[in-house]
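Is this the right way to post structure tokens for a design question? Let me know if I should format differently. Anyway, here goes:
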């Protein structure tokens, strides 16, 4: 027991260290440095257009909905060409937008079908020190160095049906991935140095496309993963299931969970999107015992929630934005802003950025008194990738291009 406690402390310390050294100027994974939609960036632009505050624009071949991942002088994305047969890893120069690397990570003559709203390159690149991790669902997982040289490749065997969705996370020496297919559902941890499987925990349920989060609960690290029909808490070093929470008829879950105020906020998925607040300190089936509250109307199918202080902000896919008291679930305000939404919310520079699917970004003030719109900005094209913030800039991806948006100097 003492050895396990020491191991937990070492792993938790390594995880915290890995995350915190990336805060300034970096956005190394889906939803920013901590994976929760927050950025410490300041002096970000409030307004922009195709002719205003665009530092650079780079056209990208193919289609991908992976969010830009930024570290140092590099911006990494993935894309899919030739109807998903050719899966690419691309590095852009952060300062100029020029393409530094463009390599084919995987090639499949028959990549299989995907949902019309998805792409074959939707999971975001995870940057961890001198290594990059890319995941294309059943089509392949790989590690590259910062020069785009292959370190290892692996393949997860499951039927992701609608295509790849959730991104991987790193905990200490482990790369953790949720693989919820129509045939099998499991969470697995690979040795991030070699790609060898360290643990694999199967679970029952349905297909899902959500990215797990790491949280500290009562001083212990916990991996929280939203799957089809169930959300689970795991010990990340071993994969041991700690608790599970059931939502009725939930499947194809996309939103990434959010942790704070001693609660984890979960979305139930299709066909009945509900938002749940659950206490993650239980054991076994906590469906009846650990639910703090739920919201049955206005919950998102795709955009991840955003916790800012004591308030939880969500936008439903049909453009209804809501601000809730995170502890009680009481509604502060609700506003139909229009449009269709897939991208997750971003909080930075004391603003919330909400990007719809038609290139329009609503910038609002984080306040519980009322919906307060600061600006509405538009770029051409479809937009489903979540905005990333780094180096006093916003990085916005459309179906054809990546933009660096920065105040003119």
């Amino acid at each position: 027991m003492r050895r396990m406690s020491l191991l937990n402390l070492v792993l938790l310390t390594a995880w915290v260290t890995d995350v915190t050294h990336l805060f300034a100027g970096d956005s190394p994974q889906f939803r920013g440095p901590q994976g929760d939609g927050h950025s410490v960036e300041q002096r970000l632009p409030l307004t922009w257009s195709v002719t205003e505050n665009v530092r650079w624009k780079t056209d990208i071949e193919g289609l991908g909905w992976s969010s830009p991942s930024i570290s140092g002088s590099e911006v990494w994305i993935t894309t899919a060409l030739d109807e998903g047969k050719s899966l690419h890893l691309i590095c852009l120069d952060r300062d100029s937008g020029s393409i530094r690397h463009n390599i084919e990570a995987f090639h499949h003559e028959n990549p299989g079908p995907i949902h019309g709203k998805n792409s074959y390159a939707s999971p975001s690149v995870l940057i961890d020190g001198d290594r990059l991790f890319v995941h294309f669902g059943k089509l392949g997982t790989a590690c590259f160095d910062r020069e785009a040289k292959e370190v290892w490749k692996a393949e997860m065997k499951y039927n992701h049906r609608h295509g790849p969705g959730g991104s991987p996370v790193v905990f200490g020496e482990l790369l953790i991935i949720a693989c919820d297919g129509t045939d099998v559902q499991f969470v697995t941890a690979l040795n991030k140095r070699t790609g060898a499987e360290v643990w694999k925990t199967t679970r029952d349920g349905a297909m899902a496309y959500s990215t797990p989060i790491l949280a500290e609960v009562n001083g212990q690290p916990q991996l929280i993963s939203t799957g089809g029909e169930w959300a689970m808490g795991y010990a990340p070093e071993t994969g041991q299931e700690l608790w599970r929470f059931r939502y009725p008829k939930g499947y194809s879950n996309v939103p990434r969970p959010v942790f704070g105020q001693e609660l984890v906020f979960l979305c139930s998925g299709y066909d009945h999107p509900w938002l749940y607040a659950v206490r993650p300190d239980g054991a076994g089936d906590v469906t009846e015992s650990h639910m703090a509250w739920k919201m049955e109307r206005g919950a998102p199918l795709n955009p991840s929630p955003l916790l800012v202080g004591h308030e939880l902000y969500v936008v439903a896919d049909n453009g209804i934005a809501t601000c809730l008291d995170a502890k009680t679930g009481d509604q502060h305000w609700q506003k139909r802003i229009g449009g269709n939404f897939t991208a997750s919310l971003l909080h930075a520079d004391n603003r919330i950025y909400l990007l719809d699917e038609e290139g329009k970004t609503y910038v609002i003030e984080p306040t519980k008194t009322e919906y307060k719109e600061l600006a509405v900005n538009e770029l051409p094209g479809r937009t489903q990738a979540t905005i990333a913030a780094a180096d006093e800039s916003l990085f916005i991806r459309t179906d054809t291009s990546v933009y660096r948006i920065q105040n003119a100097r």
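Format looks fine. Someone answered above. Worth noting: The helical segments are 2-20. The chain has one helix and 33 strands.
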